[in-house]
């Protein structure tokens, strides 16, 4: 039985108030600089509910917007999401085409005036071999990045089509090229030189450094979340996931991921920071 409009409005209002209070309380503690999400489970979610795979991906984009809003309200400056692996091109042509259409439409919405990225001053950057996409998708990506290029308050890294090994290899080639161009001295190259040339690192460098408490560590992941109870990195940000990265493998399918999943993750990270400050870690 459907709820009467008035009751539905009251419930929505109370949930909104509770969300605001919870996020305010969390914001009083330490806040991570960089969170990464492996958005897993769209297809399994669709199969369990008897829906089309495209519907699962569609609800997955809704979950991305919901989760991104939580992060932006907490002033988490960098959010990186694993949207499409290079290996995903091996999936059926129908699924890949449907996902391309969804990505163009839903991500474009985020970039429009009045939407989240505009509201919070966050730029969008696509990290990976975008030349593998169809030309219309490449053009849409370029347009989205240009629409948000002037934003300096944060960055949404959409890793697509992406593989961490490919990102590292590209950064290494860029470092070698810098030596040939005379920008770096061969015997003075460090691992930091390569790290700074990672696609994600270059995107983060465009954010106002004054907004980070630890700007020199903004490229590293504070928290890595993978949904759908899958416990592996799957070639996602393997260098950025340092010894201090907190890993969370949650059972929730990505389309259902939300505030109730995020709160324990954030509180767990804050607890670790407080213990470290007290000398227990």
TrEMBL record:
Signal peptide: none annotated. The keyword Hydrolase does not apply. InterPro entries: UPP_synth-like, UPP_synth-like_sf. The keyword Ligase does not apply. Pfam families: Prenyltransf. The chain crosses the membrane at residues 12-31. It is an enzyme of class 2 (transferase). Gene3D superfamilies: Decaprenyl diphosphate synthase-like. Keywords: Membrane, Transferase, Transmembrane, Transmembrane helix. Its EC number is 2.5.1.-. HAMAP family: ISPT. Belongs to the UPP synthase family. This is Alkyl transferase. It comes from Kwoniella shivajii.
